[in-house]
Write a structure and sequence with these properties.
about 25% strand; 6-stranded antiparallel β-sheet; Pdz3 Domain; alpha+beta; Transcription Regulator spoIIAA; 2-enoyl-CoA Hydratase, Chain A, domain 1; 12 helices; disordered C terminus; about 30% helix; disordered N terminus; 7-stranded antiparallel β-sheet
Length: about 450
């Protein structure tokens, strides 16, 4: 994805790799810099954006106008001083997802959402209560994945430096570095402290993988969606069309460990599976702001089972929630992550960026995903031993040796069998019409 300068973007992401849609505001960072007389103008610009769009009209019980007076009465002699002041100002909202990005951080975010990364392949969130840095999921085939980093791991140190008080932007800056250099991560997993030395690499992300799988019910289509990056929708469309051309009998869509991504990417993909029905609605501080629905352009109506787990977050929850609520798919696995906040991201100042929480999103049935997550229709929990086995031998993922996949196949078989019975019943020739009853005798 490419973010135009000064572009407004909507985020469905639970992680630092913000997922977005674009709406150009028509003003470049360069033109803004030309009329900004001092760094104080940047501070006020950020304040104004929060004042107009932040999801909580009480600003977390903060007197936001008094905050403006405080920060504008200060003297700033450089952009860096303004940056620090802005971060201090935003901390008053106590919202880790509303954050300021200096030009380097903003550029990094654009790179991250473009589908190509340089680093170790970890996607992070900050726990809203404990403020700990939590791994949402390692990216498949990344150095972090191969090293054994897992979803829900807590990063306590980066190269020996404590992460106490560190936000996701600071952590990302430390974890990133030149290709082939190493970073040491200390993580807390349950009660165990573990250390991982990981070599950084260039990571190209192809979010969709698909294959034809043989099964007792014939051939089925298996699609694994790793992330809702810029090319996810186009790759998903190609995958479905390819599998349809091969006459598969049904589908398993694997959203496990998918941390989210483009909000509109999830909507586009939902429309490929749904003929009709609501997909998602967003609610800002004054009420419902937007409702997205299917558009009668589904690519297939064949039976569908979706795999989810605790690392399926944000845009993954939009998609799985839409398919579940519209009774288009059966969800198998474990409860999803539970991240239902929408953010806007826009350029400010001279190349900097600002992410602002502006709304919550809800499933078609009105479920508030935030914190609660989405419960699967069929719960299948993996033991630690099973997780380790699948991690050691990734070729087993999406096979009968994968317990969640095996259950999904069992459910899909029943759905395919049921559809076959229905189709046969509909294809039977109509029975001969009953002879009409004699007309009642007319009174004479």
């Amino acid at each position: 994805m490419v973010i135009t300068k000064r572009g407004l973007v909507l985020s469905a992401a639970a992680v630092v790799l913000t997922a977005v849609t674009l709406a150009n505001t028509g003003c470049s960072s360069k033109s803004l810099a030309s009329f900004r007389e001092s760094p104080k103008e940047l501070v006020d610009e950020v304040w104004q954006i929060i004042d107009k769009s932040y999801v909580d009209g009480t600003f977390n019980q903060v007197d936001w106008k008094a905050v403006r007076n405080d920060f504008l009465n200060r003297t700033y002699t450089s952009d860096e001083q303004a940056y620090e002041a802005i971060r201090e100002m935003l901390k008053k909202l106590d919202d880790p997802y509303t954050r300021f990005m200096d030009p380097e951080e903003f550029k990094n975010m654009q790179v991250e959402t473009s589908g190509e990364l340089t680093g170790v392949g970890i996607q992070l969130s900050q726990d809203e209560e404990t403020k700990k840095l939590v791994v949402i999921a390692p990216i498949d085939d990344s150095p972090a994945f191969n090293a054994g980093i897992q979803a829900k791991d807590i990063i306590t140190k980066i190269d020996g430096k404590s992460t106490d008080g560190m936000d996701t932007n600071q952590a990302v800056s430390l974890i990133r570095g030149q290709v082939n250099t190493e970073v040491t991560l200390t993580i807390l997993r349950g009660n165990k402290e573990l250390e991982f030395k990981i070599k950084r690499a260039k990571i190209e992300i192809h979010p969709v993988r698909h294959s034809v799988q043989k099964s007792p019910i014939g051939e089925i289509g298996y699609i694994r969606l790793n992330q809702f990056s810029a090319n996810a929708a186009s790759e998903m469309r190609s995958a479905i069309k390819d599998l349809e051309s091969k006459n598969v009998n049904g589908y398993i869509l694997d959203l496990r460990s998918n941390p989210g991504g483009l909000l509109f990417g999830s909507i586009e993909i939902a429309r490929m599976w749904l003929k009709e029905g609501t997909i998602v609605s967003t609610v800002d501080r004054v009420g419902e702001a937007d409702r997205q629905s299917a558009n009668q352009k589904a690519l297939t109506d064949k039976p569908l089972v979706v795999l989810v787990d605790g690392a399926s977050a944000s845009a993954s929850e939009i998609l799985s929630g839409a398919l579940q609520d519209n009774k288009r798919a059966v969800l198998v696995g474990t409860k999803t992550f539970g991240k239902g906040l929408v953010q806007s991201v826009r350029g400010v100042g001279n190349g900097a960026g600002l992410a602002v929480t502006i709304a919550k999103y809800f499933t078609p049935n009105g479920t508030d995903i935030n914190h609660a997550g989405i419960e699967p229709d069929i719960k299948v929990e993996l033991s630690d031993a099973q997780k380790q086995e699948l991690r050691r031998d990734r070729d087993k993922i999406g096979t009968a040796a994968d317990p969640q996949y095996a259950k999904a196949m069992e459910i899909l078989a029943k759905k395919v069998a049921g559809q076959t019975v229905d189709n046969k019943a509909q294809s039977k020739p109509n029975a001969a019409p009953a002879k009409p009853s004699p007309s009642p005798a007319k009174s004479k």
